[in-house]
Design a protein that fits this description.
Family: Belongs to the ABC-4 integral membrane protein family.
Helix content: 40-55%
Protein name: ABC transporter permease
Subcellular location: Cell membrane
Organism: Parablautia intestinalis
Number of domains: 4
Shape: globular
Number of helices: 29
Oligomer: single chain
Keywords: Cell membrane, Membrane, Transmembrane, Transmembrane helix
Length: 791
């Protein structure tokens, strides 16, 4: 009951709270740093994730693409009640590379431009055959100095005929795409008119495509929307292989449950660790001042007022450091990807992140406040905050620093075990994930594209293959000839060339490939036979087809074969029938169907070579690449791949992944270390009187130092040992599981030497720093001072 004449004590509690804040500057700075870090990390992770997701979502506005369409297909799509918009387009060609710059040419209607988020900045849509829209960035990149009404000459490869053509176009306007702000951009876009396509014999009969958006997408789940796109396509008579679902757009605009759970999990881990650290720091402050709170209780301060004093401290620190942390996180998000940064949404996200951290701080001070308000005035004068255990029988053994440390740890097992588990779990995560990151071998990943231990591959340029221009047509004028092979062999340092052959065929309406089996393949496949008899590489005859049941393609198509089965393929209107002679299992190969080289040469009338794999002599790389480039660049139907370049590409990719993973791990480890530091400080500060008693009965400073060292070693060295043993086991299990996934054989367990050494150094420094601090803290206070109940 509140009496009308009761005094308002809010001013008193405010002054007491302000006095405590002014006295505990070190503690305030420590709590402030933790709160700042938590707010900054939360704001950065939240805003950056939102920006990237929104950037993906804004890159397009369609849910599906349908290819190789007839006019009847398009009419049915436009009549479908589920579809909101249909944009029809046709790929026209690609300009020849000039100073590293290329441009894609598309015939598109305005709906397609809207669904592709292509904006007409100025001018008008092209109408005549010699008109086009172009990105201003292309003009600037090539320093053409052309504007609306000016003419530019383009040299491009016709998408339908695959022939190089030249034409002068008059610019009718400029467009802007979502890639405008991309750094180091080398590819641009242009839009031509329908009249241009009609006047070109090859393009006028070429296939068209359509992109669609669906009505009321919000009422569908991600999976339902994807299935709806496929159903619409099939109902309109479009084959499954010509239906392309825009998974990235769907998942970006309507985040899947897995994505949401992952984001929430990361946020909860960060908030949980932050809460634990803030709680420990306030706990130290409260138990170190329980006597002071007891004095306040004796003069009439209520439990509610004690709670208000501590709550005001938490509010003060939160409100002073959270805004700066949120600002820092938003600024970091802007610096990392300024093109995706959105001012108003990111400010709102940073504000919400600040609210989450503020709630975290408020929850963190509840337990310390409860301790302060629940201890009675009499009990407060001998309260240590250090829970005891049941009395033990007297032992005749001599007390040593080690036995004293063991007794102290056992007296507060709960806190010791929780701190140990916190450190061990973060260490296990660090070492386990480090094992995986250390096992990502960029060279082995690159070698998957370089069979037979080759260092270079000269292959057909598959970038030229389109729905209207097949691999078979590319092989009709195949430049992978014996003459080119001899020219390559004449290069100094080249040791051997192994030829790969491949033909493009169809099976059950799906396009696939049959690969030839040369002598090197024969050696490999002999060890992978599951059933049947492997034919020789020069075998000819109908009983010759080899099936790789480990192929992802067969797994996707749910196809299974047995020895003796007959398999029929179609090629250019002809049927090719083979009998299965052997089943092999190779999960690292994408090849499903294999024929002996002798059989393939007998099957096709043209040169079926698809690649020359080049082996070189050891340390003989100098000059080889330049000469290969001079041979290959003579025609754009060939391309050169080098093991060195691909290894560097994968090294860069794996490095980016490692940096992101280690950054998140570093945050978790740092919070765990701060938690350990605070736990150690709690143990020392809360036992000041006990330390004084030890000193009073003759325990030397050196013995005290060793006792504290043993206590800290249990946490630091003990948790490190647990982290190392369990972390390496977890890492090895993860690497083994991932390495068995098709295409991931490059993940071979490697002991993470550098991360472990860094972790050892961190543990050693942490152990030394904590013990040194504790020793200095005990040394700077005399025995009399340590025996005092209050500060």
């Amino acid at each position: 009951m509140t009496w009308p004449f009761e005094n308002d004590t809010s001013a008193v509690t405010r002054r007491l709270s302000n006095a405590r804040i002014g006295q505990n500057r070190f503690r305030n700075r420590l709590i402030g740093i933790i709160i700042f870090m938590a707010a900054a990390i939360m704001a950065f992770v939240s805003s950056y994730a939102y920006n990237i997701t929104n950037e993906y979502a804004a890159s397009t506005a369609y849910q599906g693409i349908f290819q190789n369409l007839s006019q009847e297909n398009i009419s049915l799509l436009k009549e479908d009640p589920h579809i909101q918009k249909v944009g029809v387009y046709q790929s026209v060609g690609m300009t020849e590379q000039e100073n590293g710059i290329t441009m894609s040419m598309v015939c598109s209607d305005e709906t397609t431009m809207q669904l592709s988020n292509i904006t007409l900045l100025e001018g008008r849509m092209p109408q005549a055959a010699d008109e086009l829209l172009v990105e201003r960035g292309y003009i600037d990149a090539l320093s053409l100095k052309a504007g609306i009404g000016d003419t530019i000459s383009l040299h491009y490869r016709n998408q339908a005929s695959r022939q190089l053509e030249s034409k002068d176009f008059r610019i009718t306007g400029f467009i802007q795409t979502t890639a405008e702000n991309d750094r180091d951009r080398v590819a641009y876009n242009a839009v031509v008119s329908q009249n241009f396509v009609r006047e070109n014999p090859a393009l006028s009969t070429g296939p068209v495509a359509a992109m669609v958006s669906v009505h009321d997408t919000a009422k569908y789940t991600n999976q339902e929307l994807k299935e709806l796109i496929r159903t619409i396509g099939l109902d309109c008579g479009i084959s499954a292989d010509n239906i392309q679902v825009n998974n990235l757009y769907i998942d970006s605009n309507n985040m899947s449950k897995e994505t949401v759970l992952t984001v929430l999990l990361v946020g909860l881990v960060l908030i949980g660790v932050c809460s634990l650290v803030v709680y420990n720091i306030f706990y130290i402050s409260v138990i170190n001042n329980v006597a002071s709170f007891g004095q306040l209780r004796t003069i009439g301060t209520t439990k509610k007022q004690i709670r208000q004093i501590i709550s005001r401290e938490g509010n003060y620190l939160a409100l002073h450091f959270i805004p700066f942390g949120c600002m820092a996180g938003a600024v970091l998000s802007f610096l990392i990807d300024w093109s995706a940064f959105q001012l108003l949404p990111d400010i709102v996200i940073a504000f919400l992140s600040g609210i989450a951290v503020f709630i975290c701080v408020r929850l963190s001070v509840l337990k310390p406040a409860k301790i302060a308000m629940s201890v009675s005035p009499v009990e407060a004068f001998h309260y240590s905050g250090y829970s005891g255990t049941k009395k033990r029988k007297k032992s005749g053994k001599h007390l040593t620093p080690f036995s004293l440390a063991a007794m102290n740890l056992s007296r507060n097992r709960k806190k010791s075990i929780l701190t140990f588990i916190s450190l061990a779990l973060s260490g296990m995560m660090f070492i386990g994930i480090s094992s995986l990151l250390s096992s990502l071998d960029p060279e082995q990943r690159a070698k998957q594209a370089f069979p037979y231990e080759g260092s270079y591959v000269v292959e057909l340029n598959r970038a030229l293959v389109t729905p209207t221009f097949s691999l078979t047509q590319l092989q009709e004028n195949n430049l992978l000839t014996d003459e080119l092979k001899n020219d390559i062999l004449s290069i100094d340092g080249v040791d051997e060339i192994i030829c790969q052959q491949e033909i493009c065929v169809g099976i059950d309406g799906m396009e696939t490939a049959i690969r030839s089996m040369n002598t090197e393949d024969y050696k490999e496949l002999k060890n992978k036979i599951m059933i049947g008899e492997l034919p020789d590489y020069d075998h000819t005859g109908e009983n010759s087809l080899v099936i790789n049941m480990g192929s992802p393609e067969l797994e996707y198509l749910h196809k299974s074969y047995e020895v003796g089965d007959t398999v029929t393929f179609s090629q250019a209107g002809n049927s090719l029938t083979y009998t299965v002679s052997a089943i092999v299992f190779d999960r690292d190969s994408s090849v499903s169907f294999i024929l002996p080289a002798g059989e393939m040469e007998q099957t096709v009338p043209y040169n079926a070579n698809s690649a020359f794999v080049i082996r070189v002599k050891t340390d003989s790389f100098a000059g080889i690449e330049d000469e290969l480039h001079s041979l290959v660049l003579a025609s754009d139907t060939l391309r050169l791949k080098t093991l060195k370049d691909m290894t560097m590409q994968y090294k860069s990719v794996f490095s980016t992944i490692s940096i992101a993973a280690y950054a998140l791990l570093a945050v978790i480890v740092i919070f765990s270390i701060i938690n350990l530091a605070n736990t150690s400080m709690t143990n020392i500060i809360s036992r000041r009187k006990e330390m004084g008693l030890f000193r009073a009965v003759g325990l030397s400073h050196r013995q005290l130092y060793h006792m504290i060292g043993f206590e800290n070693s249990f946490q630091t060295v003990g948790s490190f040992a647990a982290s190392l043993i369990c972390g390496l086991g977890i890492g090895k299990a993860i690497c083994s599981a991932i390495g068995n996934v098709p295409g991931f054989s490059f993940v071979n367990y490697t002991f993470p030497v550098v991360p472990v050494l860094l972790y050892v150094l961190l543990v050693f420094m942490l152990q030394l720093a904590l013990t040194k601090w504790a020793g200095r803290y005990c040394r700077k206070n005399s025995v009399v001072e340590q025996l005092r109940v209050t500060e």
